[in-house]
User: Which sequence fits this backbone?
């Protein structure tokens, strides 16, 4: 009985929180749009903003993925093969961008590539409002992912394998070893990183909105500004568009995520591993390598540097005014309340999402090894928790705006409504960290504890939590960071000052006329987000379990 | 038994956490005992006239607490009001303009205002609609502004017809806003509907002009700020970071050059293009939501928006003409002097707009696709 409840609770919560709002929203969208889904999809090409948006989204994601892989793979190779001075610091710098909130990156790249930027004025680089600018930003974000996922695979391979390969006719040349030894080693991890890059580029919103300029719409941006979505009688066109994009997005992202789980399943290592340290070569690096690694480090930090620098400048002059105004209470863009809101959402996201992910991971890892319905149930629960990965943040926002709040108007004003979006978006991240750790837990510990007569509660507190301490902390930090940087859904829902988070405030500062200091305050907000995220990221690194480097 | 304890513990943690007082915002949950006796909830967008000082002054004088629900733009104000019309989230709805007014009236969003203290109004403010369900609080004309450093009278002369903007001279040099996401954009689109329906040529309508503009690389932004600050060469955006200045004509207000002069010591290179029927008289309204929880307090708030305090300052806080006939744009620093006034505005009534807007927006979408 107790077991039944234990395994039912996560499913019920996930259905209520994640699945139900989305299904109600889809029903509501079909009601409000006056045409069927196929007509809705074919109509996309006859309208401003939506015409070509699917093609542009695919093109942007594909080019971003190619660019990310071609820069990320060499970096991962150098990091995995060679020992660099301050190796872990270099790795931290290269992998930091992945956890930087999207609005911070946006601010960083506006300062880096904007019309009055240092690059534009000194090198006449006019990348502002071009697709190239977005591709650069996507690459900056996701190179971190490639390094994070691929480097460990390279670093952990037993060097004696390569020695043996040298002696064989099939491996006596470098290109033969690359093809026959290294490619199979990195292939699956690289494919996983490429798929994730594709997914993140596919649902990119803040960067496209601000770097893309007029007329440049990916699906996410084209469906975001549709205020009449879901309103019967008035919102037919808006609903039709969101429905069409929502379905296309669901299909493409589900396929991508299915690929990802395939890669990760097959990617479980079968090659003999060495410990990481022993395999890195202590060889002198060529000048080229040093130069390129130096440029990579500079590129990884430049947008962050310009973000902070911009907070000390008002209308082009050095000044502390933005920081002073931001922390005074009188200005419209005063930061204290939005900062509190942001932290409140982030803390609550951790408090709720991590236990829920733990419950769900516990059910999945326990039941998946049983037979028949239990295993199927585990699979379904796993998929349900991961479902938000196949929805963009804007779509999650619509799920809540027209799905959940359709149940009761008064929900539109409760201070915790955006929290639901944060939970939905953070849950799969927390789950992805906790579940593998849970799976790798030796069941004999739990059996021993039970044999010794420990209650379930005791097992949890004396065995589970101590053994999973690292992953739980990493999951908590990840959930916190995801909530901290969440933009698309919170922006879509935004109704009251209680919901103004720092990313939303940054966006508003850029649509506010007649106010130069608003933009400098946006830099202050971005700097605060950045500093918080970096602190968390450095903390998380300390708690990663060995062998978990290939995860998020 | 023991397992159940675990579950209860987990559930308690899960459920108690969001309710815990230390994390919730203090004092503004609806149902607690601290609910003020007099209260009004206002649904609006970034209307600058509703400044913090105006609101706290209002509360001090009347004892009525004001809660603001602020959304991104005027379209979203209407959307939220429609979405919640059976159980309104706000007592007062501020910021729906005449392009969307009829949709709001058709959906019976408002209650009659027969007790409001309405001053004598500018005739422009009552032209599109003069009924009792909403009251205008400000107005202005939307038209094209151009930069006289580009339109120098020698190489480029001032356009005498909207068709001039489809010439090579203006290729890629005109910036407009998407009428689905911007109220000036919507207003200007409506002006073009009227302009091309009443011009000498019966073989073309507004969609032909928009197609020609698209072919001439017109720049379309989501909102006014990006169009004016980032792209328009003749505005204050040139002093700001992020300025591109690749457009020499922009859809803005006929009084925008006046605002430029007001802040620029009576200096501006921007001029309003006041062709007949090529400007749209935009009026912004306030009204009380049907089924409002606090109708009396709401009425006091509406009165406040039409009282001297707000009306006398709206030209420099919200940068629009006041509705009250006793006030207008100030002549200080050339505000009034640089404001363009066309001989004839486009002449669509709120009713005509209500009947046509859905179709026109769809036609615009396909013309620009």
Assistant:
């Amino acid at each position: 009985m107790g077991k039944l409840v234990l395994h039912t609770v996560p499913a019920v919560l996930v259905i209520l929180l994640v699945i139900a709002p989305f299904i109600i929203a889809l029903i509501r969208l079909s009601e409000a749009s006056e045409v069927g889904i196929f007509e809705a999809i074919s109509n996309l090409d006859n309208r401003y903003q939506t015409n070509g948006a699917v093609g542009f989204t695919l093109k942007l994601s594909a080019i971003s993925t190619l660019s990310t892989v071609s820069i990320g793979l060499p970096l991962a190779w150098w990091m995995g093969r060679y020992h660099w001075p301050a190796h872990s610091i270099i790795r931290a710098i290269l992998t930091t961008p992945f956890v930087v909130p999207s609005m911070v990156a946006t601010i960083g790249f506006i300062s880096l590539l904007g019309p009055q930027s240092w690059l534009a004025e000194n090198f006449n680089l006019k990348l502002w409002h071009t697709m190239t600018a977005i591709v650069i930003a996507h690459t900056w974000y996701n190179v971190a992912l490639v390094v994070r996922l691929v480097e460990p695979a390279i670093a952990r391979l037993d060097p004696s394998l390569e020695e043996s390969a040298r002696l064989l006719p099939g491996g006596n040349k470098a290109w033969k070893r690359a093809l026959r030894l290294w490619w199979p080693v990195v292939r699956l991890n690289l494919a996983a990183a490429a798929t994730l890059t594709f997914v993140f580029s596919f649902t990119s919103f803040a960067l496209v909105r601000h770097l893309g300029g007029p007329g440049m719409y990916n699906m996410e941006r084209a469906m975001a500004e549709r205020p009449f979505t879901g309103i019967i009688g008035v919102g037919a066109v808006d609903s039709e568009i969101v429905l069409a994009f929502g379905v296309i997005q669901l299909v493409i992202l589900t396929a991508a995520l299915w690929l990802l789980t395939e890669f990760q399943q097959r990617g479980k290592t079968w090659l003999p591993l060495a410990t990481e340290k022993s395999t890195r070569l202590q060889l002198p690096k060529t000048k080229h390598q040093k130069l390129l690694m130096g440029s990579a480090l500079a590129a990884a930090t430049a947008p962050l540097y310009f973000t902070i620098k911009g907070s000390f400048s008002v209308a082009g002059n050095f000044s502390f005014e933005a920081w002073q105004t931001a922390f005074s209470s009188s200005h419209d863009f005063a930061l204290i309340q939005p900062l509190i809101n942001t932290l409140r959402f982030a803390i609550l996201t951790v408090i709720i999402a991590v236990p829920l992910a733990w419950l769900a991971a516990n059910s999945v890892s326990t039941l998946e090894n049983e037979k028949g319905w239990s295993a199927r149930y585990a699979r379904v629960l796993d998929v349900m928790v991961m479902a938000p990965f196949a929805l963009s943040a804007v779509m999650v926002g619509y799920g809540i705006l027209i799905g959940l709040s359709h149940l009761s108007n008064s929900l539109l004003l409760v201070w915790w409504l955006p929290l639901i979006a944060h939970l939905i978006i953070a849950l799969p991240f927390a789950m992805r960290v906790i579940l593998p750790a849970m799976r790798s837990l030796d069941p004999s510990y739990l059996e021993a504890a039970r044999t010794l007569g420990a209650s379930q509660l005791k097992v949890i507190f004396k065995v589970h939590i101590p053994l999973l301490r690292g992953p739980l902390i990493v999951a908590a930090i990840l959930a916190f960071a995801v909530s901290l940087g969440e933009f698309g859904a919170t922006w879509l829902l935004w109704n009251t000052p209680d919901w103004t988070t720092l990313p939303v405030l940054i966006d508003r500062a850029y649509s506010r006329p007649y106010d130069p200091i608003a933009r400098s305050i946006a830099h202050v907000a971005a700097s605060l987000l950045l500093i918080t995220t970096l602190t968390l990221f450095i903390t998380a690194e300390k708690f990663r379990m060995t062998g978990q480097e290939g995860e998020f | 038994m023991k397992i159940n304890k675990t579950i209860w513990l987990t559930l308690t943690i899960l459920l108690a956490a969001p309710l815990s007082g230390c994390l919730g915002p203090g004092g503004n949950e609806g149902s607690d005992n601290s609910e003020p006796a007099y209260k009004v909830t206002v649904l609006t967008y970034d209307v600058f006239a509703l400044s913090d000082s105006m609101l706290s002054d209002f509360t001090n004088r009347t004892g009525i607490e004001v809660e603001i629900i602020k959304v991104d733009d005027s379209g979203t104000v209407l959307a939220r009001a429609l979405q919640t019309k059976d159980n309104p989230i706000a007592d007062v709805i501020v910021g729906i303009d005449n392009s969307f007014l009829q949709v709001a009236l058709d959906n019976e969003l408002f209650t009659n205002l027969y007790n409001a203290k309405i001053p004598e109004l500018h005739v422009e403010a009552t032209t599109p609609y003069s009924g009792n369900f909403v009251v205008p609080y400000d107005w202005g004309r939307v038209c094209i502004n151009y930069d006289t450093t580009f339109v120098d009278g020698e190489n480029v002369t001032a356009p005498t017809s909207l068709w001039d903007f489809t010439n090579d001279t203006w290729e890629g040099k005109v910036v407009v806003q998407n009428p689905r996401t911007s109220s000036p954009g919507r207003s200007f689109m409506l002006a073009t509907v009227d302009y091309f329906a009443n011009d000498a040529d019966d073989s073309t309508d507004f969609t032909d002009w928009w197609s020609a503009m698209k072919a001439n690389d017109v720049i379309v932004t989501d909102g006014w700020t990006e169009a004016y600050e980032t792209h328009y060469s003749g505005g204050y955006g040139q002093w700001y970071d992020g300025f591109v200045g690749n457009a020499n004509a922009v859809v803005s207000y006929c009084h925008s050059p006046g605002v430029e002069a007001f802040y620029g010591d009576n200096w501006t290179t921007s001029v309003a293009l006041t062709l007949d029927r090529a400007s749209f008289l935009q009026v912004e309204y306030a009204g009380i939501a049907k089924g409002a929880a606090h109708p009396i307090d709401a009425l006091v708030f509406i009165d406040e928006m039409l009282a001297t305090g707000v009306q006398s300052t709206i030209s420099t806080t919200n940068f629009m003409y006041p509705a009250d006939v006793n006030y207008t744009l100030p002549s200080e620093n050339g505000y009034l002097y640089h404001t363009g006034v066309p001989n004839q505005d486009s002449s669509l009534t709120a009713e005509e707009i209500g009947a046509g807007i859905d179709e026109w927006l769809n036609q615009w979408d396909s013309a620009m696709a």
About this structure: Chain A touches chain B through 68 residues (CB under 8 Å). The first strand of chain A starts at residue 313 and ends at 314. The two ends of chain A are 36 Å apart (CA to CA).
